[in-house]
């Protein structure tokens, strides 16, 4: 969990309680150490959030404190709606669920006029489905591999139909309009390679971490082969 997300959840926990809540309970709720809670409480206090209490006793928000409501204008709402629908249509299932959950939270904060306008806009902002499921298959595992720097093993079907097996350092994914590709460092070729997700037959997330190297990254690969605003590069496998 990223620090910003953890701070938001910590603030939500404090807002939901009227009494003090101990660092131990907060740590259990957020699945972090008490030391992390102490640092996060200090970070919130320094940013202006009025938190009462102390280590060993517990914490609570100062009575009467409230966060200003989140407000969006019409263009911002339409941008969020369109973005969420793209993720739901073209992303993997886990990202689709996250987009739906995020939209629900946004809807809950909208005042009545903005909520009505949001519902009306949903009738004319449509996003078609391009082979949903196939185009983003294994996306959740690949994202986990990128985040944790875990080596992937894939069984792949090349464009000529020949099977191929590789061990990869996953660096990222690129969506080219109708096709997702996995970009990784191939241990066999000792070079960058990219693979269409809809041609991956099997993918396994190995319990091995690859080293972080300054000379190997998704950005360096893309800068070396193409303009990402145009068409996907012809990949070698």
Q: What do you see in this structure?
A:
The chain is α+β, with helices and mostly antiparallel strands and 237 residues long. It contains eight helices and seven strands. The strands form two sheets. Strands 6-5-4-3-7 form a five-stranded antiparallel sheet. A two-stranded antiparallel ribbon has the order 1-2. Helix 1 (3-16) packs across helix 3 and helix 4 crosses helix 6 (112-121).
Q: Radius of gyration, rounded?
A: 23 Å
Estimate the strand proportion.
15-25%
Which residues sit in consecutive blocks of at least 5 with pLDDT less than 50?
none
The total count of helices amounts to 8
What letter string, H or E per element, gives the SSE order? Answer: HHHEEHHHHEEEEEH
In the sheet with the most strands, the strands line up as 6-5-4-3-7
Query: Termini separation (Å)?
Result: 34 Å
Q: What best-fitting shape do the alpha-carbon axes yield? A: flat
Can you give the mean pLDDT? 81
Major beta-sheet overview:
5 strands, antiparallel
